[in-house]
């Protein structure tokens, strides 16, 4: 599948691996793909993000992802579902952090970096983003998978990345409208 990726899409995947390795994670999630996508400049996805008002430095998106990471990667929807069962995620996070320090549930080890010389494995939601980006490209009859397809996939694969994007006004409909004008004609 990677042979169908454009240079920009490959750079996003490579950047996601670097994010995971840099934080010492054993696996790479959709959040790593989103962070790497935010780093891109001069690509179709960066054009769409700018058109939708996501500021160039994208600090608010990064903060939202970090906050989700503090909650052990739970999305707001998952936290609300647990609240419906009488489980207060905020209280659990506060208790754990009082005992073990800030960010104790983030899963970040004390010493970041590559473990045992192995690259981080792709978690199911990251694989789902890659697979969905392929389906989106095929549906659009695009020959290659670009970073815009990754952005579209990130908006629809359930989880923290999609939630954070939606909170910033980046949804399937809004990205599709910017890139394709809502119809079949492509922008730029």
UniProtKB/TrEMBL annotation:
Signal peptide residue numbers: none
Pfam families associated with the record: Clp_N (PF02861)
Repeat found in the keyword field: yes
Clp R domain segment(s): 2-188
Record protein name field: Peptidase
Key words of the record: Repeat
